Amino acid sequence: MNAAKIQFPEIRLKVNGAERRISVPPMKRLLDVLREDLGLTGTKEGCGEGECGSCSVLLDGMLVNSCLVPVLQANGCEVLTVEGLATNGKLADIQRKFLELGGTQCGICTPGMMMAAEYLLRQNPHPDLDAIREGLAGNLCRCTGYMRIIDAVKHSTQTPAPAAVSAPTDLAHQGNGK
Amino acid sequence: MVQFQPGPSIRCHENINVELLLTLTESNGAVISERKHCLHLAQSRYASKYAQPVKVRKLGSLIMRDTTQTRIVGTPVLRKEGFGKVTGGARYIDDIALHDMWHGATVRSRIARGTIKGIHFGGGIAWDEFVIVTASDIPGTNRIALIIDNDQPVLAEKQINHPEEPVVLLAHPDKARLHEAVAAVEIDCDPLPAVFTIEESERQQTIVWGNDNVIKRFQIEKGDVDSMWQRAAHIVSGEYRTGAQEHLYIENNGVIADWSDTDGLTIQGSMQCPFYVHRALLRIFDLPADKVRVIQTETGGAFGGKEDYPSIIASHAGLLAKKAGHPVKMIYDRMEDMAATTKRHPSRTRYRAAVDPDGRLLAMDIQIDLDGGAYATVSPTVLSRATIHSFGPYFCENIRVRSRAWATNLPPNGAFRGFGAPQTIFGIERHMDQIARAAGLSPEEVRRRNFLAQGKTTATGQVIRDPLDLPGMLDRALEVSGYRAKRARFARENAMSPASNSIRRGMGIASFMHGSGFTGSGERFLNSLVGLEADASGHVTVCASSTEFGQGTSTILSQIAAEALGLPYEDVSTAQPDTQHVPNSGPTVASRTAMIVGRLVDDAAHSLAGILREKNLLGKEYSAQEFRAACAAYAAKIGTLRSEARYQAPKDIFWDDAAYKGEAYPAFAWAVYVAEVAVDMRTYTAQVENFYALQEVGHVLHPVLAAGQIEGGVAQAIGYALYEKVVWKDGHMSNNQMTNYIIPTAADVPNIEVYFEETPCEHGPYGAKGLGELPHDGPAPAILNAIQDAIGVSFTSIPLLPEDIFMCVAQAQAPDALDTVASAERSE
Q1: Taking phi first (over 0 means left), then psi (-120 to 50 degrees means alpha), and beta for anything else, what does residue B517 get?
Q2: Nearest CA to A72 among A28, A14, A17, A31?
Q3: Predicted TM-score of the model (pTM)
Q4: Which residue from B86, B88, B747 is facing A99, i.e. has the nearest CB?
Q5: Residues of chain B contacting residue A150, judged by C-beta atoms under 8 Å apart
Q6: N or C end of chain B: smaller count of CB under 10 Å?
Q7: What structural domains does chain B harbor?
Q8: pLDDT digit string, tens, across residues B361-375
Q9: Which ipTM score applies to this complex?
Q10: What 3-state class would DSSP assign to B282?
């Protein structure tokens, strides 16, 4: 704790569209940088070994487990987290479908699960049941039995570019549980 | 598509008894069956509600009543806390940081049993930077006692009783420094002999608990079992085993503790039961009730795994925070959580049944043995529920059940969805299939001939008073699953040569029940209290300690209050469970929240409106606008508007703890599940291809949440049956990683079809019963019954992994020769 402060090389990330510059140990996990240094706690840690997918984010469009990515590997990359799915406080379609169709229960796997769904829908806007099951198989959920998650993905459309969002549903007033 | 349609014969008798004719029709209008349900409704509002025509609609895979008579209850309103969960805004404990917060870690025993000689702090660590806590730092009693006194130490002082037992606590401002510090602490022990299985414990050569290793025992005696064996046409015996199961909630256990010399201890964290933690901390810290505050944060799954364990981690973080003078966060990593926290009790059940020539049960003698682990924790009540569910949904005049929970030197086993029932339902439902074979009946027919029915008694002497139509449920389950046609087709296909078809398919059934609420007199002791508060704007807050951890507590309690008060759903919310601000509505366990706590919310809502009427601020009929105006007037004239409701035991429910007889539960949920399974004879992999879950859980409060509970429970139970194996090595879980403890993924779960039969229950709000645990009880035996149907081998133990199937099948060329794994003594 009283060791001299080490100056780490600067890491540049574009997180949810915003340029971020940070000086952190280069082997620090991207997951911890997002949560601790950038305050984006929506991305969760479930296992720390790349099994559960709770920490899933898109890194330059690729679906990764952020617990397995040293931040230096993400230097200069674009990162999309759950916080980047909604546009101007309006839920993306995938978020709305998870909410309406019961795709979230305890919610701890939900951010990672939605990122996997987002990735799947970008690759394949109309996935069949097998493709959905396969696309979500890297993300563990212990609550839902996956049925309603699969349903939510089936009924979601690929997130359109922000400009193309038309009359999104504002559901903020529903979220007054706590 | 099939539909329930209201018959013309709905009649009301003095608003108490309602006869409802339910007609099952095909979509073309052809009548499949008609069934009369007789509802005994104590309150006229239910009676008038159900005297109205009942419509049905199909929503996805489930068939639901269209609740035209309720505005909010029974509708798929959005989950109260759902917005935060889909945006990443929900704050779980690891998402919270306090100013100047340190981090805590636990040094645990590496041996199973022994005596501590000393604790050594190794070199290379700047120990002066750490805060170190041992048992001597505990200001009060070094014990956590949920059910039995002086049960479990907070920190081991002299005696070690299981691997991973906490001994020393460390805190440091830098979380990254803790790992090597924990590894540098050496606990010097003299090892003692240990026991790791039920068999080793019952041998009683090494005594690790009391005089005989028995933590708790129960006995049920009904009728005269011993006189029946001679009269039996068939006597069928079998032994069944279930393994430990890890909850594997995706959020590990975690808390933040904050100590203040003036205000005492504040804990926030992931938990099911804030008042359990509160009670534990009072004793450990020797503090008065107002100096301990426990707050539940958003909780990422629990399944029973956060029922009693949070008392341990909260006390640890509290001790560190007090000594450090800083808030201390303790979050287990996955390996620690899996190795150190509770599991489902492993079990061994033995069934001996006397059956008459028609396949009817004459007598059952049941022996249940559970592995409780090193301390009692909740084992006595798990054993109780296991005992009361061991005879299944069957009527038998003569039943003896003897059950014991054994102490071993495993980490204590604890609460897990189902709470003992999955273990004994596995036994009885596997055994019913063996009885069917002995009696020459089909699995469905032997069940049909033995089902409990209205007016009949269970083994504890409980008379089934509610309407109950298990034969009808069985018919529907067989119908929706296409059971008969598939079973016949599979039999033909299975007879094909292995060269042309290596897949063997089968169908399996389980019929079962799950009691809602605490067992026996438990709810009387809990004496739960719920409060409602309305502010000047007319917004109503439900104040209860009942926690949301995914199952939908916040949503259903808000629905009930909004329904009862005639308000929009948006006008009601739930308070964050905080022991300083909410009354104790009891623990969030035992499938009790919807039925017991929901009823209290309903009662409190009616009395809230009653208070406004007493002050002449509200008429008999009112609009939401008038309610808001009344609240504003009340706030201006009188102050905060509050009402409350306390649990009152139903007058006709009585339980005798000493004799272990009476009404074990105010209501049971009932179910018939059908599994369709394929076994690949090249890889010996069993895969559930379709699963049909039909249940009667009273009136469904929220169709999407209810179906989600069933689907999630079925998936977890598929894991229990086919994937999830805890590998023990000297009492230590050696596969304590998600890499090698395998739970079902989206690619593994079958299509799960959920069907609700709705017979409103008078004990629950709007006719609801508990349903959260039910779906974990039946799938495992249904799956193994289907495997026996597919390959002719009666497996008696779960988890059933491909290597287990291989070992058994490889031993015999002809599968038929293996039909004796569950030994069937047959006498004519």
Answers
A1: left
A2: A28
A3: 0.91
A4: B86
A5: 746
A6: C
A7: 2-51 (no CATH), 93-194+250-340 (3.30.365.10), 528-646 (3.30.365.10)
A8: 999 999 999 999 999
A9: 0.90
A10: helix
